[in-house]
């Protein structure tokens, strides 16, 4: 004997199934909205300021990016054969690179230190328009200085967050714009075994919000990318520092694909770090990164922490030596 469902029973099951799916979607949507709206964290305790070398600091110059916005940089004129472009770390701006810029200038190079958009004098503080805009800005800057230095060897050098950004550039669509890359204490953060918790207290990410926004981005939704995603333990009273990053700025400086970016890098690269780095586990750089780029030079400078790499004589000497001797 054959039994069949009555049409009413079948329709009832379909209605129940749709209702269950609708409830699940609603629950997920509410959880996602809550993570984005309320997934923040308590502000970190401000760190003590470090004294940097700001003697003979050049004034700011401007170049115009492709969107018509004037962005800042500092120029250190030198020889015609070597040009170094310096990228500062998270929450700071070009003046923190002054000691390194003068060191490389003394070696005969022309040096430029830029204010990344969202920092210092460039654009609105703590935000950009889209993920990837920093890459485009750097390409625009390279196009501006190129005619002034025909035939010069171009080296991109980044510190901390600027180091992670330098890895992104080296392995990205603009990797051919520079001949060599040097990264100093690169801030390769979550997910990675390199970062100490909250970068040693310097940066507090809003992880629930970041995860929620990443999920929305996968769906093509970017309406909330301007929300804050990371806050920094900046010392009080310094108006040149940036206290928070929007999601899109944080993601543009993010090093999530650092393995792939290193594998795609075709130009010489060197990494220097303070052996006593208090934000990252310096002894892990080599074992973690060299398998992705076997010709990566890794050097740890004994006795120095993260910020020391910007100003300690041993750090400056190490960067200069690498700059002068790394493959061309």
Query: Using DSSP, what is the number of strands?
Result: 11
Number of helices: 10
* CA-CA gap between termini: 85 Å
Q: Rg from C-alpha positions?
A: 23 Å
Arithmetic mean pLDDT: 92
Oligomer: single chain
- The CATH class, by name, is Alpha Beta
- The name of the CATH topology is Rossmann fold
The H-level CATH homologous superfamily, spelled out, is Alpha/Beta hydrolase fold, catalytic domain
Order of helices and strands: HEEEHEHEHEHEHEEHHEHEH
Helix fraction bin? 25-40%
The tally of structural domains comes to 1
Structural class: alpha/beta
Outline the biggest β-sheet. Answer: 8 strands, mixed
Strand order of the largest sheet: 1-2-4-3-5-6-10-11
Query: Spans with pLDDT under 50 lasting ≥5 residues?
Result: none
What does the overall shape look like?
globular
Architecture (CATH level 2) name: 3-Layer(aba) Sandwich
Strand content: 15-25%
Structural commentary:
By secondary structure, this protein is an alpha/beta fold. The chain has a single domain (about 60-325), classed as Rossmann fold (3-Layer(aba) Sandwich). Helices cover about 35% and strands about 15% of the residues. It has helices spanning about 5-40, 100-105, 135-145, 160-170, 200, 205-220, 245-250, 260-265, 285-290, 315-325; strands spanning about 60-65, 70-75, 80-85, 110-115, 155-160, 180-185, 205, 230, 245, 270-275, 295-300. It has an eight-stranded mixed sheet with strand order 1-2-4-3-5-6-10-11. Strands 7-8-9 form a three-stranded antiparallel sheet. The longest helix has about 30 residues, at about 5-40. The protein is globular. The N and C termini lie far apart (about 85 Å).
């Amino acid at each position: 004997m054959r039994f069949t469902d009555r049409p009413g029973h079948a329709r009832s099951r379909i209605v129940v199934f749709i209702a269950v799916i609708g409830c699940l979607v609603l629950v997920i949507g509410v959880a996602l909205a809550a993570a984005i709206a309320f997934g923040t964290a308590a502000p970190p305790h401000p760190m003590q300021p470090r004294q940097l070398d700001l003697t003979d600091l050049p004034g700011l110059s401007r170049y115009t990016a492709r969107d018509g916005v004037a962005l800042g940089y500092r120029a250190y004129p030198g020889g015609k054969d070597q040009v170094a472009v310096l990228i500062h770390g998270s929450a700071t701006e070009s003046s923190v690179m002054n000691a390194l810029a003068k060191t490389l200038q003394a070696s005969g190079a022309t040096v430029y230190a830029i204010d990344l958009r969202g920092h210092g004098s460039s654009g609105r503080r703590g935000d950009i328009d889209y993920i990837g805009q920093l890459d485009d800005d750097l390409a625009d800057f390279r196009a501006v200085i190129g005619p002034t230095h025909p035939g010069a060897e171009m080296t991109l050098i980044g510190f901390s967050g600027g180091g992670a950004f330098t890895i992104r550039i080296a392995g990205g669509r603009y990797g051919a714009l520079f001949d060599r890359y040097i990264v100093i204490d690169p801030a390769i953060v979550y997910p990675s075994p390199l970062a100490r918790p909250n970068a040693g207290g310097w940066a507090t990410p809003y992880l629930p919000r970041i995860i929620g926004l990443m999920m929305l981005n996968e769906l093509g939704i970017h309406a909330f990318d301007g929300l804050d995603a990371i806050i920094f333990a900046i010392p009080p009273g310094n108006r040149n520092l940036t206290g928070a990053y929007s999601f899109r700025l944080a993601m543009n400086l993010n090093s999530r694909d650092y393995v792939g970016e290193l594998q795609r890098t075709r130009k010489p690269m060197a990494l220097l770090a303070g052996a006593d780095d208090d934000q990252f586990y310096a002894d892990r750089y080599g074992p973690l990164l060299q398998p992705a780029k076997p010709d990566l030079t890794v050097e740890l400078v004994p006795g120095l922490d993260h910020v020391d790499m910007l100003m300690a004589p041993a750090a400056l000497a190490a960067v200069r030596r690498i700059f002068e001797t790394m493959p061309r």
